[in-house]
Amino acid sequence: MNRPLLTEEVAGYTVTTYRVTPEHTLTVAHETGVGRERPGNGGTRWLQYDSLEEARAEALVLAQCMTRKHALYDTGFRGTKLVLDGPLDLPDRSVVHEALARVLEQHDGALYTGCDLNTTSADMRAVAERYPAVLDSLGNPDIDTSVSTGSGVFAALMTTLELGERPRVAVHGLGKVGGQVARLARQAGFTVAGHDIRPDAAARLGVQPVGHEELFTGGYDVVVLCSLSGIVTEELAERMQARWIVASANSPFATEAAQRIVEERGIRYLPDFVANSGAVLCDAVEWREPELFARLDQAAMDRYVMRSIQARALTVLTEADLYGRTPQVVAVREGALPQELAA
User: Fold this and answer.
1) pLDDT for 282 beyond 90
2) Which residues carry out catalysis?
3) Start-end ranges of CATH 3.40.50.720 in the chain?
4) Are 198 and 178 in contact (CB under 8 A)?
5) Which of 192, 223, 278, 299 has the least CB density, counted as fewest CB within 10 Å?
C-alpha cells in the first residue's frame, strides 16, 4: 500500500493510485501545493469504475471541483478528492480504513478527508481511529454535514426564484442531501416531485414520485440534481424542460457539449460548486475553530451554511445578469483552478 501503483502531475494536481486489495485501488488527487498551512480537503468516494483510467479521471475532475468550492468560499483548504475503485460489497472494510489512514499519515497533516458517495460516518470514524486527519463532524455528533449541504442547496435554489414565486421543483436523488432539499421546498409551499433508486423514498418524504425521464422532461421550474456525476447526457440535454438546474452532484454534465446544449436552449445552470458547498463550510469551521464547532447544533450550522451560500450565489447571479454572462462563467472565474491562475 505504501508504494504507489501510478503517479503523475496534471495541470497543478498530483494524481496517485495505490493498490488496496486485488480488486480495489485508491486514487488520491490533490493540488500539488498542499501543506499543513493550507491542506487539501475532499471526501472519499467509492464506486466500481469500468477502468482504472476512468477512476483516475474522475478523481482529478472532482479534485478540481473541490478547488473551486474552496476558492469560492475562502475555506483555507486546497482541492482534493479520494476515489476508491472496486466492488462495494467488501466483506471486511477495515482494509479500506487502513489504506485511507496510511495515505493521510503519509501526507502528515496536509490532507483531510470525509464522507462522499458510498462511504459513511462509521467508515470515517474507523479511519480517524487510525489517523486523525478526518473532518466529518466527529467532534460534534449533533451536526450532520450532509443535512447542512442540503440546506445550502435549498438556499441556492431560492436565489434563482422571483420574489413570491411558488415553483414546481423536481429533485433527482433523495438521500440525505436531496431529502433535505425536498423537505425544505415542501415547507416553503412549493410543489415538489422526486426520483430515487429506492422506490419508497419519495413517499417517505411526502413528495410526488416521478420517473427519471419525467423528472427532466416534465416542465418543472427548477431541477435539483443530488445524485451521480455525469447524469445529464447530450440526449437528455436536448429534451430537458426546465428554467433552472441547481446542482448538488459534482460535475452533473456528462460532457461539455451537454452543458453547452442546456445553456443554448436557455436553461440556466447554477454550478454545483456554488450550491453544494455546505460540507466544506462545515469542515472549515471544524478545522479552524474546533471548540466553537463542538458547541454548535444543526440549526446553527445550517443557518451559517444557508446564509453563506445564499450570499455567494446572489453575487454570482447578480454579476451574471449585469454583464450578460452565464453563472458558470462568473463562478469559474471566482473559483479559479491552479492552471487558470497561472495563465
Assistant:
1) yes
2) 81
3) 145-277+308-342
4) no
5) 299
**Whole-number Å distance between alpha carbons of 183 and 273:** 22
Write out the three cell numbers for 74. Answer: 475562502
Residue 55 CA, chain-centre distance (Å), reads 17
What pLDDT digit, counting tens, does each position of 142-173 carry? 999 999 999 999 999 999 998 888 999 999 99
- Given a contact cutoff of 8 angstroms between Cβ atoms, the answer to whether 123 and 82 are in contact is no
Beta carbons of 85 and 49 less than 8 angstroms apart: yes
- pLDDT tens digit string along 31-44? 999 999 999 999 99
102: left (phi over 0), alpha (psi -120 to 50) or beta: alpha
Model confidence, pTM: 0.91
Grid coordinates given for 56: 483516475
The pLDDT, as a whole number, for residue 2 is 65
pLDDT value at position 340?
65
Q: What is the mean pLDDT of the chain?
A: 94
Spatial separation of the C-alpha atoms in residues 91 and 117, rounded to whole Å: 18
Task: Considering the chain, tell me which residue range(s) the CATH 3.40.50.10860 domain(s) occupy.
Answer: 6-69+77-130
Query: Top-level CATH class of 145-277+308-342?
Result: alpha beta
Residues 128-137, mean pLDDT to the nearest whole number: 96
Average pLDDT of 3-25? 94
